[in-house]
Amino acid sequence: MPDLQQLTTTLKEYFGYDSFRPLQSEIIASIFDGNDNLVIMPTGGGKSICYQLPALLLPGITLVISPLIALMKDQVDGLLANGISAAFVNSSQTTEEQQSIYQKLLDKEIKLLYIAPESLSFLDAIFAQIELSLIAIDEAHCISAWGHDFRPAYTQLGYLKNRFPKIPLIALTATADKATRQDICDQLNIPNATHHIASFDRKNLSLEVRPGNKRIEQIFSFLSDKTNDSGIIYCLSRKTTETLAEKLREQGFTAEAYHAGINHDQRAKVQEDFINDTIQIVCATIAFGMGIDKSNVRWVIHYNLPKNIEGYYQEIGRAGRDGLPSSTLLFHSYADIVQLQKFADMSGNKEVQLAKLDRMKQYADSLSCRRKILLSYFGELIEQDCGNCDVCKNPPEFIDGTIIAQKALSCVTRIKEEEPIGTVIDVLRGAQNTTVYDKGYQNLKTYGIANDIAWRDWQQYIIQLTNQGYLEIAFHQNNKLKLTPIAKKVLFEGEKVSLAHLKAFEKTKESIIKP
Ligand code: ADP
Ligand code: ZN
């Protein structure tokens, strides 16, 4: 196994970098140890090196499964330019082109082979004859219907581990909450994978949520000091991207729409013009941005509420990759929620989608530091409020919520983290219903300890406790409330908790348009 010195030399020689970014060398060492690995690292964090560098030093071929044909070509071109023998296989190639790659693989002339999951069968005939050293699965969240970008072709990838049990597998993604991580490992058959989870904190992104009324006017005023700054506006519908781009052009901005209904050449052109700063603004549906490497996107607006926090965080993450201050703005409207609920209803796993949408809504409604919510959603608990979100900059009135928090958290403890929010509140308030009696909750010490607080108010408080990271919602276990590691500070170490006064909450509610 190569030591750090050798790895660093190879990094410099082939990629021109002097040192590893956080986690890269640990991940590479873990591959050489023969482990399977799950890597969760934000976009731009440097995931590619984690398998490209081992590929150079391992004896055989590294197979890279990647969902996007356009990306594949860029990656391969980049590697070839660095003197690394790489190739890709996908459905856009002729049989001759594929045959030639086939031959090169057999002749051991290729170190890295990029392939779309749909094209894997291409390798069936030669799998037995080639030496495989590593399997990398990029954008691994695509395997999970719980994630935000499910691709049916990914679900067949589970057989790779069965077929090549001794070849280390590395799954990489920029977005996966806890449950999705578990699902990725289950589906890929890598139960013992080492997990490498990079910090998701992007301090340079300011976070702001506003009610979605008069959005166009708000956008113009938002843009008034951003005359030359590149930005993306995400919209829910194709039509909105087009009307919005049109309105922006009328105001003198260079803006284009981008969505799956636009033809391939035009899309490629928009993407290229945006990267080259010929277009300032792209109004896009979610189809835009996956894998585009543009470091100076200065702002991202969500014209509509996204359907979950994973997607939202990934999309705002496209701003400020160069580390410079960048702004994000989310519009929040009742109409969006209704629309998204309809989509969720039509999806295969309605309950999970609805629960995730609920969390998104709670984020938008929140009176706690928004960054805390985002990071705790991904399992990262920060102590301090961020100072760079609209709630931190304009805090609501707080009350000492320590006793309330202690009651709620100890109730969750006593019901063994087995119930969703509604039942927790029923127990706290001493409700006399069958759920409570069936499970004998009326005998718990916490039964009825807080019936002085109204049901709705409890709901708000518990959401706030979740937003602050003391509780989390297990989406895939019927939304049971679970304690997080910092809950014990409140229960046993006397940590004080501040909760927003409920009247502040009423105010945000009113500002959101009701039907
Ligand atoms: P990801 O796949 O996580 O989005 P990439 O692998 O594309 O990220 O890397 C993002 C950028 O960071 C690329 O331009 C890459 O060349 C650069 N990069 C990666 N590792 C390093 C490193 N150790 N030192 C400097 N730059 C790096
Ligand atoms: Zn904050």
Automatic annotation (TrEMBL):
Q: Which cofactor does it need?
A: Mg(2+); Zn(2+)
Helicase ATP-binding domain ranges (all copies): 28-194
Q: What is its EC number?
A: 5.6.2.4
Entry keyword set: ATP-binding, DNA damage, DNA recombination, DNA repair, DNA-binding, Helicase, Hydrolase, Isomerase, Metal-binding, Nucleotide-binding, Zinc
What range(s) does the Helicase C-terminal domain occupy? 215-368
Which cellular components does GO assign to this protein?
A: bacterial nucleoid; cytoplasm; replisome
Q: Which domain of life is it from?
A: Bacteria
Q: Name one GO biological process term.
A: SOS response
Give the catalysed reaction(s), semicolon-separated.
Couples ATP hydrolysis with the unwinding of duplex DNA by translocating in the 3'-5' direction
Record-stated family: Belongs to the helicase family. RecQ subfamily.
Name the chain's protein: DNA helicase RecQ
